[in-house]
Write a structure and sequence with these properties.
The complex is a heterodimer of chains A (122) and B (159). With 122 residues, chain A is of the alpha+beta class. Chain A is built from two helices and six strands; from the N terminus they run αβαβββββ. In chain A, a hairpin with a 2-residue loop joins β4 and β5. The chains are: A alpha+beta (122), B mainly alpha (159). At the A-B interface, α1 of A face α1, α2 and α3 of B.
């Protein structure tokens, strides 16, 4: 039993750590992640259009993109800016600002406190 | 006259090596259990983050479950004293592959967010490489100490 003592201690610390982390993250407000549809042309007009024809819902609390300002990738918004927080299908009450550079447009701004955006490499 | 000499191994030295092995195994075990469980718990997010990787994008689904399973297997190997050496070797292999991946990412996609577990999430790519190197060194010390702890006192007594 003695030779397993360190291992048992390590397992307890690891499990406690995971439980603590999950408890902490569950208190954080959920962020709804929408991604610009890669099938659509990355024009300024399309990127600024918040309809689900251009921005599709990907999931909750997902990470952003590489943040290379070449073409639009993802926006992360709080529950106030989606059509239905229980079953979101599109952005609502939020405006996206984009800048065209060459053949693609990238996001340069998003309205709403705490909302985030990230672009990707072309 | 008693001609039989009693050879008493240095118990303190053996204990020292055993303690070293057990401490290192516990640290690495804790790390792998924590990161493995965290990845499984946040499977969806982890898989999504991998799918954004330029290297692992195509195999994101496979890596998303096989990596945490491998981490938990290594943690289990480190828990069992007879499998500890194998656990240390697997640790070195896994961390070496991970470090190569991190180096590639640092060179080609340095701004991609790191989907690491717990405290490691706040580390930069560079800090993560340093952290991995420290863990690899610990695992090497673990292998050496495993050898020492089993050989001390088991050698033939001096004539």
């Amino acid at each position: 039993m003695k030779k397993y003592l360190f291992g048992i201690l390590a397992a307890v610390v690891a499990f406690t750590g995971v439980a603590f982390k999950e408890a902490k993250s569950s208190k954080r407000a959920d962020m709804y992640v929408f991604e610009f549809k890669s099938s659509q042309p990355y024009t300024q007009g399309n990127v600024q259009n918040t309809s689900n024809a251009y921005w599709e819902y990907k999931g909750l609390n997902l990470s952003g993109c590489a943040n290379i300002n070449q073409k639009a990738c993802r926006v992360l918004v709080s529950a106030d800016y989606v059509d239905d927080p229980d079953s979101p299908t599109q952005l609502s009450g939020v405006s996206i600002t984009a800048t065209q550079s060459g053949t693609t447009a990238h996001v340069t701004g998003i309205s709403g406190t705490g909302n985030l955006y990230s672009n990707q490499a072309d | 006259m008693n001609t039989h000499k009693t050879y008493r191994p240095s118990l303190t030295e053996r204990t020292k090596w055993t303690l070293t092995v057990e401490s290192i195994a516990a640290v690495i075990m804790c790390l792998f259990l924590f990161t493995g469980l965290d990845k499984l718990y946040n499977y969806k997010q982890f898989r999504d983050a991998l799918s954004k990787s330029p290297v692992l994008g195509n195999v994101a689904g496979l890596v998303a479950w096989s990596l945490p399973v491998a981490e938990i297997f290594i943690a289990t190997a480190l828990f069992i004293p007879t499998m500890r050496k194998t656990g240390f070797k697997a640790t070195i292999l896994l961390l070496a592959v991970f470090t190569i991946y991190l180096s590639y990412m640092m060179a080609f996609a340095p701004k991609l967010p790191c989907m690491c577990a717990g405290l490691l999430e706040s580390l930069s790519w560079k800090s993560h490489i340093i952290f991995n190197a420290v863990m690899i060194v610990l695992a090497i010390i673990g292998i050496v100490a495993s050898g020492k702890s089993s050989s001390v006192g088991s050698r033939a007594p001096p004539s």
